[in-house]
Amino acid sequence: MIVWNRACRSARLSTRPPNPRRCLSQRTLDRLAEPVQSYISTSRDPYLNLSIEHFLLQKSAPHSAILLLYVNRPSIIIGRNQNPWLEVNLALLNPSGHGQPETEPPGLGAVDLVRRRSGGGTVFHDEGNVNWTVICPSKDFTRDKHAEMIVRALRSCSVDRARVNERHDIVLDQGERGADIDSRETHRTPYMMAEADGIRPLKVSGSAYKLTRQRALHHGTCLLSSPNLNIIPDYLHSPAKPYMTARGVESVSSPVGNILLDNETFIVAVQKHFTKLYGTTEDAIKVGDEWREHDPVRKGEDELKAGDTHSKFI
Predict the structure, then answer these.
(1) Using CA atoms, how far apart are residues 3 and 6, in angstroms rounded to an integer?
(2) 30-159+207-297 belongs to which homologous superfamily?
(3) Which member of 25, 67, 127, 218 has the greatest number of CB atoms within 10 A?
(4) Count of Cβ atoms closer than 10 Å to residue 140 Cβ
């Protein structure tokens, strides 16, 4: 951060006009040193949102805890070690580019395919899906800690079927309510007995991780009210899979469902429970398109766009 401040001061003191593409506001730079930080992105661009996330992981203070919430336009996000030819129906991503009219089912037109920097499986993002990211010191990280935070946030919104499963995903149990359990228990619900009768829970949030020497990033999806729930399988089913043997980590398929919460209700609840977990923070800072005028963010975005997503495994 000291290097950035000097660079910005040099731009102001230079006889040349300052380059506005190279400096974020001083308040934003100072915020990176605070112990607890909260951000909400106003952008729907998956390349930019993942680059802002990566910037916060790299440049925030090592002791800090950070929450970032964002919503992407329709896009498919694959893990860093996944083979897109096995995970995605690539012909659907840009129908007009494959000689198909964009009005054919599933009818979303062009859909982004982005390889993120973390592991985990393939997920579909759209405007009914809020994405959450928590960055914290690696010594404080566990695989369930922030999934449990999200479950507590959902339960505060009367979603009492939510729990963390054995794969560290968040699911909604189905079936009839059984005996009450301790409300603080985030891995069980009163509805779990239905699973013994063959009623599978619905997955509503998957997550992935990236660990560095000092920092841990845990990010996940949350299906709230996706209008595309019925066509997600069309995108996440590769017609080439039966005919290919290739390296890479395959996704584990699970039945999915909507929680039926609006985005704002979920965002407010997550902010509240992040504060309970890590302490009080200032009001969330809005981030968005202006961040791509900061060189490290723009560079990260360029790297994702040039990441050779399709051809890495050819």
Answers:
(1) 5
(2) Bira Bifunctional Protein; Domain 2 (3.30.930.10)
(3) 67
(4) 11
Q: How many Cα neighbours within 13 Å face the side chain of 311?
A: 4
Residue matched to tokens 């998957």? 206
- Smallest Cα–Cα separation from 131: which of 209, 37, 59, 207? 207
Whole-number pLDDT of residue 245 = 57
Q: What DSSP letter does each residue of 166-226 carry, written as one string?
A: TTS-EEE--S---S---TT-SS--TTTHHHHTT-PPEEEE-EEEEE-SSEEEEEE--BSS-
- CA atoms of 249 and 178, how far apart (whole Å): 37
The Cα–Cα gap between 25 and 305 comes to: 26
Collapsing DSSP states into helix, strand and coil, what is residue 77? strand
Task: Find the distance separating the first CA and the last CA of the chain, reported in whole Å.
Answer: 40
207-211, strands of its sheet edge to edge: 207-211, 215-220, 130-137, 65-71, 36-41, 285-287
Tokens of 197: 């009768």
Domain range annotation of the chain: 30-159+207-297
Would you report the helix, strand and coil content of the chain in percent, each value rounded to 5?
35, 20, 50
pLDDT digits (tens, 9 = 90+) for 195-230: 667 789 999 999 999 999 999 999 999 999 999 999
User: CA-to-CA distance for 277 and 146, rounded, in angstroms?
Assistant: 9
DSSP H or E segment with residue 163? strand 162-164
User: What pLDDT shows up at residue 239?
Assistant: 86
| DSSP code, position 59 | H
| 71-128 tens-digit pLDDT | 999 999 999 999 998 999 998 997 655 555 554 556 688 899 999 999 999 999 999 9
Any residues with CB less than 8 A from the CB of 168 and at least 6 apart, and which?
A: 143, 144, 147, 207
Q: Is the dihedral of CA 87, 89, 95, 99 positive or negative?
A: positive
Tokens for 185? Answer: 């228990």
